[in-house]
Amino acid sequence: MVANIASSSPTSISFKPFEVEAKPAGTNLQGALDVKSEYFIGDFLRLHGEKIGRGDDVRQIITYHADNNDWSIKAECKEQLLNKLLAVVKGGDEQIHNRVFLDVIRDWYHGLDAGSKIENAVVAADHLNAKGQSIARMIVEANHKLGQGSDSIRLLDVGGNDGKLTSYVASHVSDYSGSPVHPYVLEVETGVSWDHNCHEVSTAHNVKNQPVKTIYYDGHDMSSGRVSGEDSSNPLSDGLGFDCAMYQHSLHHFPSPEIQQQSLAQIASLLKEGGVLTISEHSSALGGHELDLMHMVTEVYSDLHRDPEMSGAELESRYNAYVAKEAPANYFSQTRLLDMAQKVGLTPSSSTSISEKAERTYSMTFVKTDVANLNRDRSLEALLDPEALKAVSAKYQTSPVGGLMRSLDGGY
Ligand SMILES: C[S@@+](CC[C@H](N)C(=O)[O-])C[C@H]1O[C@@H](n2cnc3c(N)ncnc32)[C@H](O)[C@@H]1O
Relative to the CA of 220, which ligand 1 atom is closest? Predict the structure, then answer.
């Protein structure tokens, strides 16, 4: 059978429909769901959308492109896309090539009228500010004395991208603590656009603070860091240390659990005594596959937003490049993060709750100090007791189907 999906939307350009042989039934869905497979999107939709009845999670993934970004697409249009994608997998057992789904997305996007795309710059600015404020609160609440005894607070944002969120966090840390903040982003040059970040939103300006500086490094050895535009300066090895550090949805991009652990060890050694580390990550009811797909679909939306007339072949090649570079990401549960952080001598101080929703996030905050010095958040008791955590999360568990579950190391 040939899968042939033509555009059902009115377009001014005629895209040549992509034709590819579907694989016969029975060759998949008994083995592991493979994010690198050229049949991954269809396998995922069939498994999660139909077989294990997690339609709501599939909906969240496909309709994810955040409404608090500086542009978004009307919810009902995303719902139409979801139905088009599910229609492709319904009624057959054969595997369908990713390209078929990418063509559906491209044709859908191309057929959207101007009123379906929403400019959200004001909402995005408010969102970034609110997010920055809540991260700053987590940091300052973990150590009320942050910055006392020195002229300024040094903040390091690992994987901080364009530094916009960093600047908002720094601004609020400064307001809460009364001290000026020197914010730094630590980044790698990956070539991935992360285009869904807020373009139209400007950096927060707080007169007390220094502008954000970006340190580029090789991705694991912090001594390789160099401040962008400065030849030799490396604040990671100048011996001054940092008062606080954060990873916002960046630690799962590190290439292996060992490198994640090494990164935490290096950050722990950079923190001053009493220094605070806060980490936000995705939680997941289903495991890592839907998080990978969610990221990939978001990249596809961004590619199309940048170049709506991109050919199917080009979109496929961008998708494949993204998958080759970024997937599968190394997601981890809160239980594992707790373990990784404690191994490097950090004491947990607070945690936000877990969630059954595919795209929800959790945050955990740690302090470089002895547990006796901490006035901890009560919600942490569940995290310190693995049995209690299991009981809380049990209600979100789905039954594994064959070998298809990729759990976040058995937790959330
Ligand atoms: C999803 S983005 C998050 C950006 C930003 N923290 C935010 O919340 O908007 C993930 C970031 O992690 C960065 N990253 C990936 N591997 C890294 C590594 N080994 N060290 C530092 N940053 C890394 C990527 O370049 C990217 O900017």
Answer: 19
pLDDT tens for each residue of 220-242: 899 899 998 887 789 999 999 99
Indicate whether 47 belongs to any domain: yes
**Cβ(249) – ligand 1 distance below 6 Å:** yes
Q: Which token pair is 60?
A: 């969240």
- On whether the CB atoms of residues 153 and 140 are closer than 8 A, the answer is no
Residue 130 placed within a domain: yes
The answer, yes or no, to whether any atom of ligand 1 lies below 6 A from the CB of 197, is yes
Our answer on whether the CB atom of 262 is closer than 6 Å to any ligand 1 atom is no
The CB of 160 under 6 Å from ligand 1? The reply is: yes
158 lines ligand 1 (CB under 6 A): yes
Q: Domain check: are 202 and 268 in the same one?
A: yes
CATH number, domain with residue 223: 3.40.50.150
- Pair 249, 339 in one domain: yes
For residue 109, give Cα distances in angstroms to 62, 118, 207, 335, 400.
Answer: 13, 13, 42, 39, 34
Percent of the chain past pLDDT 70, that is, above it, reads 76
